[in-house]
Amino acid sequence: MNKFLLLKNRSFRSLYIGQTLSEFGGAVGALMNALLLYEITGSKAAMGTLWLLYFIPSLVIQLGAGPFIDRFSRQRLMIVVQMIRFWTFLLPALLYLSGHLELWVLFFIQIVLGIVQPLYTPAGLALLPAILHNEDLVKGNAWMDGTMRLMSFLAPPAGAVLITLTDTAWLYGIVALLFLLSALGLRTLNEPQRTLNVRSSWSSQIQKGYQLFWHHKTLVWLTVFSGLVQFGVGVTLVINIPFIMDELNQSTVAYGWFAGMFPLGYVIGAYLTGKLTLPFSKQRVMFLGLFAGGLSFAGLAVSPNFAFALICELLGGIFFPFFNIHNAAFFQRSVTNEQAGVLFSIRLLIVRLSMPAGIAVGTLLVGTTDMRPLYLLIGLLIMTPALIGFTHPYFSRFSETSSPERKIG
Hints:
Elements: H1 10-41, H2 44-71, H3 74-97, H4 103-131, H5 137-165, H6 168-186, H7 202-215, H8 217-247, H9 252-275, H10 282-301, H11 306-334, H12 340-365, H13 371-391
């Protein structure tokens, strides 16, 4: 199927539109919260607290979210989550207009978003292989992942400019409206019928899911490699703003452009991933992208100026999709629709454990350690296992394509 013909699939188009609106709104909302908090407190440690309040409840919910996703309609679940996000961002808009917006509201938003995200993300991942054929998953993931990153690229500079031009209440209201439109878009998705597992107990479904996951080492390794990337991202969530604004002496708008470079590169990389046919196995393409992405983190450690930092972020965005998209497609091809929710939840749980670990490390070290060695550490943590994956024969199985009868579940 031609890449652009995917949009003729009504269900894929509905999911695509809903996710696009959601990603842009979420990126603008996250930027608003982070910059507003830093402006109010001026505290680097507060940045870590903000993100920990998002990831701690996210991890708790993720522990038992899998059966919930497999027991109910994933489409309806995603719509409910978007409505919760709508009301969550409408709240600070109303409080600001009434003159009662306080610091605790920013933390409250993070907690609510952390609670609902473990339901929304795996539901979306599980829906994609249900509405696309196996041979279209790489292109479908490239479309979805690339556009999500495009929204992430557009949101930071747009959000930074809007913060300086627009009243805070209006900006929170715009974010709320985007989530409402996302929910309406998801209503037109035609979710395929499947057998809902409501007879097994919640605990038995979770136990079976973990047994399936840990029994298949290929899925475990895919998750470990993704976790290393998310650990690095967790550290940078804490240090990126002070690195750009203090170390490189740049403005809020400049940080918005820096934050947008990685998503811009990711759009380019996602397009290339779905388009290029390289003279390497899928295994080597995947790990080469991982290594080059890690190298971009190391580049920030030696960045002499803001322009060099922008280039590092752009190149990191270009190379990481070669790893992420092939990683996701292999996982989706390897699991059955009935077990997809549980297995994706387990995968996301492990990945999410990695990010708050990175946030904790960044929060502990940012006040006592220069930020440049932290970027170098992140790069080495990613590049070293990437080299092992690229050269070790065990990982050649990542080049295989799972047939329906070999699916896990």
